[in-house]
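A favour, since you know our structure tokens better than I do. It will help me judge whether the discrete encoding reads sensibly. The space below this message is yours for that.
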Amino acid sequence: MRKSGWTTTSHNSSWRPEIETNLAKELAADLNRFCHDPLGWVLYSFRWGQGELAEYDGPDDWQREVLIGIGAKLEAGGDLGVIIREATASGHGVGKSALVAWIVLWAVSTFPDTKGVVTANTETQLKTKTWSELSKWFRLCWYANKFFELTATAIFSRSEGHGRTWRVDQVAWSERNTEAFAGLHNKGKRVLLVFDEASAIPDVIWEVSEGALTDEGTEIIWCVFGNPTRNTGRFKGCFTGDTAHRWTTRQVDSRTSKFTNKQQIQQWIDDYGIDSDFVKVRVRGMFPAMSARQFISVVDVDAAFGRHLHETQYNFAPKILSVDPAWEGDDELVIGLRQGLAFKILRVIPKNDNDIQVANIIAQIEDLEHADAVFIDAGYGTGIVSAGRTLGRTWQLVWFSGESSDPGYLNKRAQMWGEMRDWLKAGGSIPKDTGLYNDLIGPETVGRMDGKIQLEAKSDMKKRGLKSPNRADCLAISFAYPVSMRTNRLRKPAMCQTEYKGEWE
């Protein structure tokens, strides 16, 4: 991996000869020196302590940590290149937009033919805040306009022939148009990818962006920043997900930043409390227990996860067998059993269109567990229930879109999820199943003028990168209708073709 490449001709060709002779050579040498030293570049490129920066002596402590960390990883990468992933969750006003601007300007200034993309949660954020801050620091950088052109959508080299190969573009994301993220390749050089307010950027954009990480021998720098407004999604996953070990993460408390209004922060703490989600997100840089539109709290699911119950706490209650059939190719068919406060998942089966086979499996489980009722999601369960009738079964279809018996909920689905949420708060126990855990905290509510509770559609969840919550729906179905315990649970098994072993998933 080359650390340099700047020459005295890598500049605007309109410069006067004396500038080319004296300044350009010195500047090119300096920029080569800062190729793997972002902090040194920031201190070099702005007139700290003068003019607009008269009150500042350089970056804040946390900003220095990020810049130093990027430089150290680049040095360690050597000729093989390196993939750097930096994730920062912060409170308000700590200077993350300024850091974004510095990283962009440093990246293009110190490595010829750098290519990059900057995006944000909304086009408004991208244009009025992220890019506006870049414009400010571009103006404050004492040499930037000699080498680069800054427009409303891009910063690019003024060197002849490099306008398309040496640039960073502002790109508003679109789930229907991801080419700008999929095609970000720059083999053997430098790639920069920046997400601002990353908590609200859909997972599909993250997934497509990972395609830029495949170039061999390339400096790849992926930086994501944001207020931790959601405790689901890929931004949260940088800190606690399956790929968290690949990210260098930090959570910045606004109280520790030299840029923030400490009086306003204290007012928030006094009004809302230090442990409130409002203060966690806006001050402490912590993910909330419950996002603004999240329906079920992480706190409630954490408490229920693997909760131990003695059998006397539930064995008096009726047994309800619930089935959520698979909707699409990658969905799961889930069979669960709830008895009072206890719930367990009995079978998880890939999508199966053989209704007779599925009906036999359910019948076997019904007999083995002596279930008092069997509820099946009607969306893809009508054929299963019909097949069950040939086995002498009286299973109940549950229509998620049906009318709610509680006027506070829009439909049956929202009502069942509401009763499931109350059950969790009341001491419900769920197995240590991460799929079920993620399903429960995934859905958000949809705002309505009439005030009724409505959950977002499964299709909208998938647009956010979340899977269909089949396991949670399986539990929710068990709350569809009241159930009484049968006087004689020991019923004669029906004729079934499939054996059920009763293993736990």
User: Anything to note?
Assistant: The radius of gyration is 29 Å.
